[in-house]
């Protein structure tokens, strides 16, 4: 499907970007960020290999329904009456549950990340109006997400009974009473590489918190109260762009570079903690070596038995090990805090290694591309000349970011707690702290 061309007669005043041009405009910041990162992380020969924003994205939980049927047998009216009677204490228990629900503070979330969890921030910051087919599923119109639909953070909000997080810089029409999304496409942990690196996002949060509390102190209604900040969930899904840069440097340099990157994550979490944050949900990076955009470009790279780039995945796993160790350390040192690390690599790698389990026929195929299976990524032909059907079980939207379908799968597994350390379900962390099933 071909995108609309730039139009001067919109009347809207913003830039209208066609689908082929969309990734030139929106991801220009990403390209620049990774290239600048390359100057310090890699040799000039390796720069070409990482020209795209390689943050993966999100997941849509599949629903499940339970039904039960009952009937009256030959027991007569007395038996039927007995079956219809609620068990003793049923009303009291229901009232207790309703009271507990009423006592729960509103769900508040703050998210820090890159395009994996950007809900329109970079589009707002750049004044870019992205055109269809972006946003075609669920929202049925473009939203600034680099996907055909939702990203992982959207599914998380949905599961917690709150609306989608508004981007920090969007302004018009935004309601921040349930939190803020500071994520911006192209962002890195490393300072000075992208305009909205992790330290900048944390600074934005500190400013937002200060202004919110100041409003309450002046008797005005602020977006989030002191109690809201203290009970909120603080999510982090960033580092993918950094690790693509690191992966293209000599492996004997990885440890030093990854240690520096994880050190910046520690600093960010410490600042959030000093500003009242107590519940942290940290995502490791995904299986970057399985991203179709990299697999297609680096056909001469070492591949594993499933066709993913082994070297890139080794770098991603090295980062995740140090990030998990950081979470262990913070869990010990940050008094009163719950720090949960979730292994997104294992979740996303399984979509390739065991793709048939999820009904996926072509694990490396993109939805918005050209050329058809197995990749639908013909070099030099951007855009959606061959667009998959909305109901297709295709994980990748554009070779880098996930479809609504892929994000739904990943979110469901991430929230389950089965891939988390400690094994905490996301809902349990939100509603009453860390109810562990295991410390493994």
What does the secondary structure layout of this molecule look like, with pairings?
Blueprint: E1 15-17, H1 19-25, H2 28-41, H3 76-84, H4 90-103, E2 109-113, H5 121-126, E3 128-130, H6 152-159, E4 179-181, H7 198-217, H8 226-231, E5 233-237, H9 240-247, H10 254-274, E6 279-283, H11 292-297, H12 310-333, E7 338-342, H13 344-353, E8 368-369, E9 386-387, H14 404-415, E10 420-421, H15 426-430
Parallel strand pairs: 1-3, 2-4, 2-5, 5-6, 6-7
Antiparallel strand pairs: 7-10, 8-9
Helix pairs in contact: 2-9, 6-14, 7-10, 9-10, 9-12, 10-12
Keywords:
440 residues; Rossmann fold; hydrolase; 10 strands; 15 helices; hydrolase activity, acting on ester bonds; disordered N terminus; SGNH_hydro_sf; 6-stranded mixed β-sheet; globular; glycoprotein; disordered C terminus; GDSL esterase/lipase LIP-4
């Amino acid at each position: 499907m071909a995108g609309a061309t730039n139009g001067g007669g919109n009347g809207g005043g913003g830039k209208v970007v066609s689908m082929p041009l969309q990734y030139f405009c929106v991801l220009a910041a990403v390209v620049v960020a990774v290239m600048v990162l390359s100057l310090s992380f890699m040799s000039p020969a390796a720069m070409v290999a990482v020209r795209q924003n390689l943050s993966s994205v999100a997941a849509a939980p599949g629903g499940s329904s339970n039904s039960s049927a009952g009937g009256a047998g030959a027991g007569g009216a007395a038996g039927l009456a007995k079956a219809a009677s609620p068990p003793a204490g049923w009303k009291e228990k229901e009232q207790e549950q309703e009271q507990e629900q009423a006592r729960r503070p509103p769900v508040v979330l703050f998210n820090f990340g890159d395009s994996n969890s950007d809900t329109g921030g970079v589009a707002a910051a750049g004044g870019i109006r992205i055109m269809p087919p972006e946003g075609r599923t669920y929202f049925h119109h473009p939203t600034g997400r680099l996907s055909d639909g939702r990203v992982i953070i959207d599914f998380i909000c949905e599961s917690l009974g709150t609306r989608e997080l508004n981007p920090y810089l969007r302004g018009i029409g935004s309601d921040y009473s349930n939190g803020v999304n500071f994520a911006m496409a192209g962002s890195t942990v490393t300072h000075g590489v992208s305009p909205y690196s992790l330290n900048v996002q944390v600074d934005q949060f500190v400013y937002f918190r200060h202004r919110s509390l100041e409003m309450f102190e002046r008797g005005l209604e602020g977006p989030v109260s002191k109690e809201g900040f203290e009970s909120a969930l603080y999510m982090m899904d960033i580092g993918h762009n950094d690790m693509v840069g690191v992966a293209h440097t000599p492996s004997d340099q990885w440890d030093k570079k990854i240690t520096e990157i994880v050190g910046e994550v520690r600093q960010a979490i410490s600042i959030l903690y000093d500003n009242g944050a107590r519940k942290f949900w940290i995502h490791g990076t995904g299986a970057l070596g399985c991203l179709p955009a990299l697999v297609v470009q680096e056909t001469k790279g070492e591949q594993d038995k499933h066709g993913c780039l082994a070297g890139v995945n080794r770098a991603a796993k090295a980062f995740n090990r140090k990030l998990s160790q950081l979470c262990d350390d913070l869990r010990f040192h940050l008094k009163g805090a719950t720090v949960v690390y979730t292994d997104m690599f294992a979740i996303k790698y399984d979509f390739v290694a065991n793709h048939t389990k999820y009904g996926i026929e072509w694990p490396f195929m993109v939805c918005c591309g050209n050329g058809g299976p197995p990749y639908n990524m013909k070099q030099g032909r951007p855009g959606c000349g061959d667009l998959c059907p909305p109901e297709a079980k295709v994980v990748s939207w554009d070779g880098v970011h996930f479809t609504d379908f892929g994000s739904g799968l990943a979110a469901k597994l991430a929230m389950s707690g089965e891939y988390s350390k400690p094994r905490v379900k996301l809902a349990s962390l939100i509603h009453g702290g860390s109810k562990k099933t295991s410390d493994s």
